[in-house]
């Protein structure tokens, strides 16, 4: 079965930076699952998975525009330290999670004071050209519930 819109795709990935250094991998864990065609995956990876089938292994290099976007050097915000989640004491360079009206957002601490912190709101991988080694594990038709919810359910997907 080919990967097309409204298919639930399970795949393993290994993500590498421009130097070929591994950033993260799903190998050894459950495969990632997503609903194809519903903007649940970065564009470059979703485009590369189009028309692939279970068992296929390949690599794709994704430019920032089709990955996590270009870096915006002006994307700095001052937020109350109490809104930073992930640690008790903050230092420059640490990653934190901030809950916004658009949902949880990963930020990088630039400067932390006692009450306020300056954070970089760019995604940590913004501006980077990334290589994904992909292995398609399974492709199936999405259920009506998955399509109406706009995401995959079950192993590697969303759990209600």
UniProtKB/TrEMBL annotation:
Its EC number is 5.2.1.8. It comes from the Bacteria. GO terms for cellular component: cytoplasm. Its main location: cytoplasm. It is found in: Cytoplasm. One of its GO terms (biological process) is protein refolding. The keyword Cell cycle does not apply. It catalyses: [protein]-peptidylproline (omega=180) = [protein]-peptidylproline (omega=0). Keywords: Chaperone, Cytoplasm, Isomerase, Rotamase. InterPro entries: PPIase_dom_sf (IPR046357), PPIase_FKBP_dom (IPR001179). Pfam families: FKBP_C. The keyword Secreted does not apply. GO terms for molecular function: peptidyl-prolyl cis-trans isomerase activity. Residues 6-80 form the PPIase FKBP-type domain. Also involved in hydrogenase metallocenter assembly, probably by participating in the nickel insertion step. This function in hydrogenase biosynthesis requires chaperone activity and the presence of the metal-binding domain, but not PPIase activity. Belongs to the FKBP-type PPIase family. This is Peptidyl-prolyl cis-trans isomerase. It comes from Thalassotalea marina.
């Amino acid at each position: 079965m080919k990967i097309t819109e409204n298919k639930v795709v399970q795949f393993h990935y290994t993500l590498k930076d421009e130097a070929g250094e591994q950033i993260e991998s799903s190998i050894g864990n459950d495969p990632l699952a997503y609903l194809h065609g519903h903007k649940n995956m970065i564009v470059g990876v979703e485009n590369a998975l189009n028309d692939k089938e279970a068992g296929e292994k390949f690599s794709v290099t994704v430019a920032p525009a089709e990955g996590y976007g270009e870096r915006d050097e002006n994307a700095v915000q001052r937020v109350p330290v109490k809104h930073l989640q992930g640690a008790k004491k903050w230092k420059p360079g640490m990653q934190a999670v901030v809950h916004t009206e658009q949902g949880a957002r990963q930020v990088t601490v630039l400067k932390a004071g006692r009450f306020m912190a300056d954070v970089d709101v760019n995604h940590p991988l913004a501006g980077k050209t990334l290589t994904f080694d992909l292995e398609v594990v399974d492709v199936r038709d999405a259920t009506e519930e998955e399509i109406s919810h706009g995401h995959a359910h079950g192993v590697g997907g969303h759990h209600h």
